[in-house]
Write a structure and sequence with these properties.
The complex is a heterodimer of chains A (380) and B (207).
Chain A (H helix, E strand, L loop, with lengths): L8 E10 L2 E2 L1 H9 L5 E4 L9 E4 L16 H14 L11 E6 L7 H4 L4 H7 L1 H12 L6 E3 L5 H14 L5 E8 L3 H9 L20 E2 L1 E8 L9 E9 L12 H14 L8 E3 L6 H13 L6 E3 L2 H4 L6 H15 L1 E2 L15 E2 L4 E2 L4 E8 L3 E8 L1
Parallel strand pairs in A: 4-8, 5-6, 5-7, 11-12, 11-16, 12-14
Antiparallel strand pairs in A: 1-2, 1-9, 1-10, 3-4, 7-9, 10-17, 13-15, 16-17
Helix pairs in contact in A: 1-11, 2-5, 6-11, 8-9
Chain B lengths: L5 E9 L2 E4 L2 E5 L5 H11 L12 H14 L13 E7 L4 H13 L3 H4 L6 H10 L5 E5 L5 H13 L5 E10 L2 E10 L7 E2 L2 H8 L4
Parallel strand pairs in B: 4-5, 4-6
Antiparallel strand pairs in B: 1-2, 1-7, 1-8, 2-3, 6-7
Helix pairs in contact in B: 1-2, 2-5, 6-7
Classes of the chains: A alpha/beta (380), B alpha+beta (207).
Chain lengths: 380, 207
C-alpha cells in the first residue's frame, strides 16, 4: 500500500442541528447535562399510535430559507450554513465538493401528494442535492451516498478518500433525515421501536427511537489547518448474512474496525473511546459488542448517542461523529444514556457517566440493513 | 495511482435483452418488467428461492450479477473481504417506496419496507456470493463512468479490494437498466481496459 504521498485530512468546521439546538457546542453542552431530545409524541400525521422520537418543534427556528425547499433540504442548508458561518471556506472553489448523505430524503412527499412524474423528480435525492448545491454555489456535481444506516460514516470515508487522492482539496459533507409516517410505520411493522426512551446495550433494551436532524463536517487537506482533528482512516464491509438482521458473530464489523485502525495507523491501545451505532435493538447491540471485543477494544469506553437523539438514519453517522470529535477536543466522554445493567454477552466497557479523558483517537462504527458495516477513526 | 485495472466481464439487462460481455444472450420482447425478470431467472436455470422474495430492483441487480459472474469469474481466487460492490442509480428504491406507501394505508408490510433502501440489492448479491468487502451505493442523476472508474481504481489501487463488481442498477415501474462490470487487476482473455470509454460502450449497448 503506497500511502506516503497521502495528505492529512483535517476537520475544519462542523455542525449538529437537532431538536436540542443548532451548533456543535450547543448540542454538546446539552448532552453533557444529560438532556435527551427523545419524547413521547402523539401526532396523527406521523402515527396512529403514540411513539417516542426526537422531533423538531414546529416553532423551532430551522427554517431559515425560502419555502421552495422541503424540510429535508432546509435541514441540510441550515446545517451547512451554521458550519461554515464566519469561517474562510471557499464553497465556489473548483476543488470543493459537496457530499450528501440520506436514507429517505424527501420521501414524506409521497404520503401527501399525488403520484406524478414531477413528484418523482422532486423526491429524487439528486434534485435535493442540486438545490442545496446551487443555494451555496458549489461548482461540482454533488456526491450522494444512500447506503442505509451507514450512509453518514460512509459519506465521511468517501470524502476522506476523494481528498487523499487529490481529486478535491475540500469536502463539505452533510447528512439529514426527517421523521415521517413512511419511516415510523416501517420500523413499527418490524416491531423495532421502543415505547420509551431507548436503552442501548442495556439488559432491558427493547428497540430503537427514531430521530430527525442534520450534521455537517467540512474536510480539508490544506496544511494551514495543522493541529486540528483529523479523519485518519475508514473501512466498510458486508455481513453477507441477512438483509434485515446483523451478523451472528460480529466478524464483519470487526474486520471494518480493524481495517480502519490499520488505515489510520493506530493500535487498539491508542483508541480512547468507541462511538458505537448502539441502536438499542437486541440484535444490533449484541453483534456490535462482539465486534468491539473482537477488535481488541474490550476495555475501551463505548457510548451510543441514540438515547439523546434517537436513530437519525442518514444523519446518524455524521451527528455522532461530530459530537465525538467535540468529545476529543474537550477531553470529555459522554455516557451512553439509558444504560444501567449490562445486557450484551461480550464484556465490553459501556460508558455510564461523564468521564474526563484526554485521548488522541476514537472509533466511530455504524451498521445497517443490507448487512452493511462501516468504521472510521478520528484523531488529533 | 496507475489505472491498470481491467473489465474482465460485463453484463447488462435493458430493453428486454440480457447481454453478457456485450453480446445478447437472451431476449424476451413484449414482457413487462416482473415477467421479464422471472423469464431471465428461468431461462438461465437459476435455483435460488430467495429470488422470489426480492423486490424488482433487487431481482434486476441480482440477475445481472448472476450473469456477470457466470462462466469465468474465479471466486476462489479471492477471500470474501477482497471482493466488493459499488453500485449507482438515479431512482434509489423509489419503485418499492411507492409500493410500500400503498401498504401503509392498510397494514404496513415489513417485507416490503426492508426493500425501501437502494443498497439492499448489494446485500442480496453479497449474501448469494459471500462477498464481504467494501461496498457503497451512490445516487446519480445519470450513469457516471468517470466517478465509477475513479472510485473503484482507488479501492483496488490501495489494496482495499482485489476485485470489484460495479455499475448501474436502476428500476422504476416499467423502465429499468442494469449494467454491471467485474473489475480485476489481472488481464484475462477477452478483458478490456477499465476506462470511461469502455464503460460507456457497454452501458449504451442497446439494439
Amino acid at each position: 500500500m503506497n500511502r506516503k504521498s497521502e495528505p492529512d485530512v483535517f476537520i475544519v468546521a462542523d455542525n449538529v442541528l437537532s431538536p436540542l439546538g443548532n451548533g456543535t457546542k450547543e448540542n454538546f453542552a446539552q448532552l453533557k447535562k444529560g438532556v435527551s431530545a427523545v419524547r413521547l409524541h402523539k401526532n396523527n400525521e406521523i402515527s396512529d399510535h403514540a411513539f417516542s422520537a426526537s422531533i423538531f418543534n414546529d416553532n423551532q427556528d430551522i427554517y431559515t430559507v425560502s419555502d421552495r425547499y422541503t424540510k429535508f433540504e432546509q435541514l441540510l442548508i441550515a446545517s451547512v450554513e451554521e458550519a461554515i458561518a464566519g469561517r474562510e471556506i471557499n464553497i465556489r472553489d473548483k476543488k470543493t465538493v459537496l457530499i450528501i448523505s440520506s436514507t429517505k430524503g424527501n420521501i414524506s412527499l409521497l404520503e401527501r401528494e399525488k403520484n406524478s412524474p414531477e413528484l418523482r423528480q422532486r423526491i429524487a435525492l439528486s434534485t435535493s442535492a442540486r438545490l442545496v448545491g446551487e443555494h451555496f454555489g458549489f461548482q461540482n456535481t454533488p456526491v450522494i451516498v444512500s447506503n442505509a444506516c451507514i450512509s453518514g460514516v460512509l459519506a465521511i470515508i468517501t470524502g476522506m478518500r476523494l481528498l487523499r487522492e487529490g481529486r478535491f482539496d475540500q469536502a463539505v459533507i452533510c447528512g439529514a433525515d426527517v421523521v415521517c409516517r413512511f419511516v415510523v410505520s416501517g420500523f413499527q411493522s418490524f416491531q423495532a421501536l421502543s415505547g420509551e426512551r431507548c436503552k442501548p446495550f442495556d439488559k432491558l433494551r427493547d428497540g430503537l427511537n427514531l430521530g430527525e436532524g442534520a450534521a455537517t463536517i467540512v474536510l480539508s487537506v490544506n496544511k494551514k489547518h495543522k493541529g486540528k482533528a483529523k479523519v485518519k482512516g475508514g473501512s466498510v464491509s458486508n455481513d453477507a448474512n441477512h438483509i434485515s438482521g446483523p451478523s451472528r458473530t460480529g466478524n464483519e464489523l470487526a474486520f471494518a474496525v480493524n481495517r480502519a485502525m490499520t488505515d489510520a495507523k493506530v493500535q487498539p491501545a491508542e483508541i480512547g473511546f468507541v462511538s458505537a451505532h448502539g441502536t438499542a435493538t437486541p440484535y444490533n447491540d449484541e453483534m456490535e459488542a462482539k465486534a468491539i471485543a473482537l477488535s481488541g477494544l474490550s476495555d475501551t469506553p463505548v457510548n451510543s448517542l441514540k438515547g439523546y437523539y434517537g436513530h437519525t438514519l442518514g444523519a446518524a453517522g455524521l451527528i455522532e461523529s461530530v459530537i465525538s470529535i467535540e468529545s476529543l477536543r474537550q477531553g470529555v466522554i459522554l455516557p451512553s444514556l439509558g444504560y444501567h445493567q449490562h445486557g450484551v454477552s461480550s464484556d465490553i466497557n459501556i460508558c455510564s457517566s461523564v468521564v474526563d479523558l484526554e485521548t488522541n483517537n476514537f472509533v466511530k462504527t455504524a451498521s445497517g440493513f443490507g448487512g452493511c458495516n462501516a468504521a472510521a477513526v478520528f484523531g488529533k | 495511482m496507475s489505472a491498470s485495472n481491467y473489465i474482465t466481464s460485463s453484463s447488462a439487462i435493458s430493453d428486454n435483452i440480457v447481454f453478457k460481455d456485450n453480446k445478447p444472450v437472451f431476449e424476451n420482447q413484449g414482457a413487462e418488467v416482473a415477467e421479464l425478470l422471472l423469464s431471465v431467472y428461468q431461462h438461465f436455470g437459476f435455483n435460488y428461492p430467495k429470488f422470489y422474495k426480492m423486490d424488482n430492483l433487487s431481482k434486476l441487480g441480482w440477475l445481472a450479477a448472476e450473469v456477470l459472474l457466470q462462466n469465468g469469474f474465479k471466486k476462489d481466487d479471492y477471500r470474501p473481504e477482497e471482493i466488493g460492490i459499488v453500485l449507482t442509480n438515479a431512482n434509489s428504491s423509489l419503485d418499492t417506496d411507492l409500493k410500500y406507501v400503498e401498504t401503509i394505508k392498510e397494514f404496513p408490510s415489513p417485507s416490503v419496507f426492508v426493500y425501501t433502501l437502494p443498497n439492499i440489492v448489494i446485500g442480496e448479491i453479497c449474501i448469494r456470493n459471500k462477498f464481504k468487502g467494501e461496498q457503497a451505493f451512490f445516487i446519480q442523476e445519470e450513469f457516471d463512468p468517470d466517478f465509477i472508474v475513479q472510485h473503484v481504481n482507488y479501492l483496488l489501487g490501495n489494496d482495499i479490494l482485489k476485485t470489484c463488481v460495479c455499475g448501474w442498477v436502476d428500476l422504476l415501474d416499467q423502465s429499468y437498466h442494469a449494467s454491471l462490470f467485474m473489475i480485476e487487476k489481472e488481464n484475462h482473455e477477452g478483458s478490456v481496459a477499465f476506462s470511461t470509454e469502455n464503460l460507456n460502450a457497454a452501458f449504451g449497448n442497446r439494439i
